[in-house]
Amino acid sequence: MDDQTIAIDDALILRLSSTELSNAIASGNGSSGTNAERLLELEQSGDIDIDITQTNDDDAKRLDLGATVENGGLKVLHAGSVLYIVIDTERAEFKRGEQTVDAAPDDQFEVTVTGNETSVSADFEIEPRAASFDTTDDQGTIAVKAETNQTVSGETTVAPGTYLTIRAQSDKRSSFVITRTTSVESDGTFDLDFDFTNVTKGTSFDLTIPNQGFEDNASTAGIVQRPSTASVSVNNQNIGANETQTIVVRSVNLSEGGFITVHDRSFFDTENETKPAQSLRGAKYIRPGLQNNTSIELDIPYKRSGTVVVVPYHDTNGNHELDITTGDEPYVGADGGPIANSANASVGDGIGQGTTTELDPQNETVPSVPSPVNGTDDYALPNGSDGTGTHALDGATGSNEDGERGDESNIGNKKTTLKADGTTETDGPGFGLAAGVVAIGVITLLSAHRTREN
């Protein structure tokens, strides 16, 4: 079995697979108490034993199940043959001899559940609540541009699925407060985008994660740098149908360098967010500054006359390899839309110039491609989704403490996929872990963020 870690004040969830135990909790066996009290009665009667004991101290802490139930630190949910025992590590009471103690960071525990002479177990460790941001320099600062889609990322020890409210705030002359919410991924990382378009370049600010119990709210210094700029111009192209096709970009000027990409007309399709990658026909890396008459060989040639759409992209990770799908973003204009320039590509004669276009993400209508003599027109691209999805504990729907059907809110709105397996297939009479059709074959440790009051 694998060791698991749980941040202090998060909830430990024991996931037990036992039809008989789940049915006993559901029926109440004549008891009018809560699910947790029914579980305690089964434990006190000897039908089941739940032992959580510290393993890294000779003077070990041991969970006081009765005191924890009385203190509101334990809840029980059932869903079919699966039982979830939720232990709030902040409210849980432990005993060290006669002394009542709390769980603390670096404590290591073994959980053992026994019934009908069959046991399953798993280990876990308590770790500090911590979070940190990914910084961009040796001074531990986060540098962002005065533009949209500025990604802030980091990592944390709290349970995956935990919602984090991240605040960017400046008390300087150009003061501002921007608050966004994201959730922790299964690997403990998080990221989200901020819009600093209206923030004056050179403004310093602080990033914090309030109301999560992190030291100093994980405060990290940031600085808003001037926005990146780009311009691009392309003429109508006359390309051969049976030879290597090359598009010549008349001029391009990228403040930070990056890629010049060539797309077909479907780049403007607002119904499919994967169109930028699907419409790509060729690309070339260029240095910062003005470049004239840049030739780009097409990887996917035109079979008939069509539209050439030239779009400059950032080299976000600096590896000189274009990756539209996972990280490299287009240069954007003042309205937040990607900067682009379109022209005609034909196998016959074609004379004219294209026009630089900032694709307007607020306009949901895509007009037809203008001819070179019609001047500049705006195109629409879909707004990026910055919402967060609900991360519910798989299978956590069941009865709440009052015997009513509940949902993930009964155990906090977070989940993780941490697992530690101990499989048994022993059969035996009467109520027990290994009795009946579905016996306890797996004990899985999950963790959930306990709902906090702001």
Summed up, the domain count is 3
Q: Give me the count of strands.
A: 28
Whole-Å distance between the termini?
37 Å
**Strand percentage:** 35-45%
Class per helix and strand makeup: mainly beta
Largest sheet: 6 strands, mixed
- The whole-angstrom Rg is 30 Å
Low-confidence stretches: 349-443
**Estimated helix fraction:** under 10%
Helix tally?
4
Mean pLDDT: 76
User: Which geometry do the CA atoms define?
Assistant: elongated
Biased composition (Polar residues): 354-374
Region (Disordered): 338-427
Organism: Halocatena marina
Protein name: BGTF surface domain-containing protein
Outline the structure in words:
InterPro entries: Slg1/2_DUF7282. This protein is mainly β and 454 residues long. It folds into 3 domains: 185 residues, no CATH class; 95 residues, Immunoglobulin-like (Sandwich); 145 residues, Immunoglobulin-like, CATH 2.60.40. The chain is 6% helix and 37% strand. The chain is built from 4 helices and 28 strands. Strands 20, 22, 23, 25, 26 and 27 form a 6-stranded mixed beta sheet that branches. A 5-stranded mixed beta sheet has the order 12-18-17-14-15, with no helix packed on it. Strand 7 and strand 8 form a beta hairpin. The radius of gyration is 30 Å and the shape is elongated. The two termini are 37 Å apart. 39% of the residues are buried.
